[in-house]
Design a protein that fits this description.
Helices cover about 70% and strands about 5% of the residues. By secondary structure, it is mainly alpha-helical. Strands 1-2 form a two-stranded antiparallel sheet. Strand 1 and strand 2 form a beta hairpin. The two termini are about 30 Å apart.
Protein backbone atom coordinates (compact mmCIF):
# COMPACT_ATOMS: atom_id res chain seq x y z
CA UNK A 1 0.00 0.00 0.00
CA UNK A 2 2.84 2.39 0.86
CA UNK A 3 4.59 1.66 -2.46
CA UNK A 4 1.34 2.43 -4.24
CA UNK A 5 0.97 5.70 -2.33
CA UNK A 6 4.55 6.67 -3.16
CA UNK A 7 4.20 6.02 -6.89
CA UNK A 8 0.63 7.17 -7.43
CA UNK A 9 0.62 10.98 -7.33
CA UNK A 10 -3.17 11.31 -7.34
CA UNK A 11 -3.39 9.19 -4.18
CA UNK A 12 -0.65 11.33 -2.59
CA UNK A 13 -2.71 14.42 -3.32
CA UNK A 14 -5.85 12.89 -1.77
CA UNK A 15 -4.01 11.70 1.35
CA UNK A 16 -2.35 15.10 1.76
CA UNK A 17 -5.72 16.87 1.52
CA UNK A 18 -7.27 14.54 4.08
CA UNK A 19 -4.30 15.12 6.39
CA UNK A 20 -4.67 18.91 6.06
CA UNK A 21 -8.39 18.73 6.86
CA UNK A 22 -7.96 16.60 10.00
CA UNK A 23 -8.05 19.57 12.37
CA UNK A 24 -11.35 20.87 10.97
CA UNK A 25 -12.81 17.37 10.89
CA UNK A 26 -11.70 16.79 14.49
CA UNK A 27 -13.67 19.82 15.67
CA UNK A 28 -16.73 18.69 13.74
CA UNK A 29 -16.40 15.18 15.17
CA UNK A 30 -16.31 16.66 18.67
CA UNK A 31 -19.39 18.77 17.88
CA UNK A 32 -21.19 15.71 16.51
CA UNK A 33 -20.27 13.68 19.61
CA UNK A 34 -21.68 16.40 21.86
CA UNK A 35 -24.96 16.46 19.93
CA UNK A 36 -25.14 12.65 19.99
CA UNK A 37 -24.76 12.59 23.78
CA UNK A 38 -27.34 15.38 24.21
CA UNK A 39 -29.93 13.60 22.07
CA UNK A 40 -29.06 10.23 23.64
CA UNK A 41 -29.70 11.65 27.12
CA UNK A 42 -32.96 13.21 25.95
CA UNK A 43 -33.97 9.88 24.40
CA UNK A 44 -33.11 8.04 27.60
CA UNK A 45 -35.26 10.46 29.57
CA UNK A 46 -38.21 10.00 27.23
CA UNK A 47 -37.99 6.39 26.01
CA UNK A 48 -35.83 4.31 28.40
CA UNK A 49 -37.43 0.95 29.11
CA UNK A 50 -40.45 1.68 26.92
CA UNK A 51 -39.34 0.39 23.51
CA UNK A 52 -40.39 -3.14 22.60
CA UNK A 53 -41.86 -5.77 24.86
CA UNK A 54 -40.20 -6.98 28.09
CA UNK A 55 -39.09 -10.26 26.43
CA UNK A 56 -38.01 -8.74 23.11
CA UNK A 57 -36.18 -5.40 23.18
CA UNK A 58 -35.10 -4.08 19.76
CA UNK A 59 -31.43 -3.45 19.06
CA UNK A 60 -32.14 0.26 18.73
CA UNK A 61 -33.30 1.39 22.15
CA UNK A 62 -32.60 3.99 24.80
CA UNK A 63 -32.17 1.65 27.77
CA UNK A 64 -28.43 2.24 28.30
CA UNK A 65 -26.32 5.26 27.42
CA UNK A 66 -24.25 3.25 24.94
CA UNK A 67 -27.33 1.93 23.12
CA UNK A 68 -28.87 5.41 23.23
CA UNK A 69 -25.75 6.87 21.58
CA UNK A 70 -25.80 4.16 18.90
CA UNK A 71 -29.51 4.72 18.25
CA UNK A 72 -28.97 8.47 18.02
CA UNK A 73 -26.08 7.96 15.61
CA UNK A 74 -28.34 5.68 13.61
CA UNK A 75 -30.92 8.47 13.42
CA UNK A 76 -28.24 11.06 12.53
CA UNK A 77 -27.04 9.02 9.56
CA UNK A 78 -30.50 7.86 8.50
CA UNK A 79 -29.55 4.19 8.66
CA UNK A 80 -32.68 2.27 9.66
CA UNK A 81 -34.51 5.53 10.32
CA UNK A 82 -37.92 4.01 9.63
CA UNK A 83 -37.40 1.16 12.11
CA UNK A 84 -36.43 3.53 14.91
CA UNK A 85 -39.25 5.91 13.98
CA UNK A 86 -41.80 3.07 14.06
CA UNK A 87 -40.65 1.87 17.49
CA UNK A 88 -40.58 5.40 18.90
CA UNK A 89 -44.06 6.09 17.58
CA UNK A 90 -45.33 2.93 19.29
CA UNK A 91 -44.23 4.49 22.59
CA UNK A 92 -45.54 7.98 21.87
CA UNK A 93 -47.12 8.66 18.46
CA UNK A 94 -46.57 12.42 18.41
CA UNK A 95 -43.58 12.77 20.74
CA UNK A 96 -41.70 9.82 19.26
CA UNK A 97 -42.26 10.99 15.72
CA UNK A 98 -41.18 14.53 16.51
CA UNK A 99 -38.10 13.35 18.41
CA UNK A 100 -37.00 11.06 15.56
CA UNK A 101 -37.62 13.69 12.88
CA UNK A 102 -35.82 16.48 14.75
CA UNK A 103 -32.89 14.18 15.49
CA UNK A 104 -32.73 13.06 11.85
CA UNK A 105 -33.05 16.59 10.49
CA UNK A 106 -30.36 18.02 12.75
CA UNK A 107 -28.03 15.10 12.19
CA UNK A 108 -28.47 14.56 8.48
CA UNK A 109 -29.10 18.01 7.13
CA UNK A 110 -26.86 20.01 9.47
CA UNK A 111 -24.06 17.96 10.99
CA UNK A 112 -23.39 15.29 8.35
CA UNK A 113 -23.71 17.84 5.54
CA UNK A 114 -21.34 20.18 7.38
CA UNK A 115 -18.89 17.31 7.85
CA UNK A 116 -18.93 16.47 4.13
CA UNK A 117 -18.80 20.16 3.21
CA UNK A 118 -15.61 20.73 5.21
CA UNK A 119 -13.93 17.78 3.52
CA UNK A 120 -15.00 18.93 0.07
CA UNK A 121 -13.87 22.50 0.71
CA UNK A 122 -10.41 21.24 1.63
CA UNK A 123 -10.33 19.23 -1.59
CA UNK A 124 -11.42 22.33 -3.51
CA UNK A 125 -8.60 24.37 -1.94
CA UNK A 126 -5.99 21.77 -2.88
CA UNK A 127 -6.88 21.59 -6.58
CA UNK A 128 -4.41 23.35 -8.81
CA UNK A 129 -6.09 25.47 -11.46
CA UNK A 130 -5.83 24.27 -15.03
CA UNK A 131 -4.54 26.72 -17.63
CA UNK A 132 -5.52 26.66 -21.27
CA UNK A 133 -2.37 26.96 -23.42
CA UNK A 134 -2.15 27.37 -27.17
CA UNK A 135 0.66 25.49 -28.88
CA UNK A 136 2.49 27.98 -31.17
CA UNK A 137 3.61 25.31 -33.65
CA UNK A 138 0.31 23.52 -34.24
CA UNK A 139 -2.15 26.12 -33.06
CA UNK A 140 -3.97 23.57 -30.87
CA UNK A 141 -5.07 24.42 -27.36
CA UNK A 142 -4.73 22.05 -24.40
CA UNK A 143 -4.93 22.15 -20.62
CA UNK A 144 -1.76 22.36 -18.55
Amino acid sequence: VFKLARNWHGLQSILGTVARSLLSVMYLTLLMAIFIVIFALAGRQLFAGKMGSPDEVPRHNYDTLWRACLTTFQLFTGDGFSDVLFDLMLVSPIGGGMFACVTFALGQYVLVSLFVGVLLSKFEDSVTPLILVKDPKTGETHLV
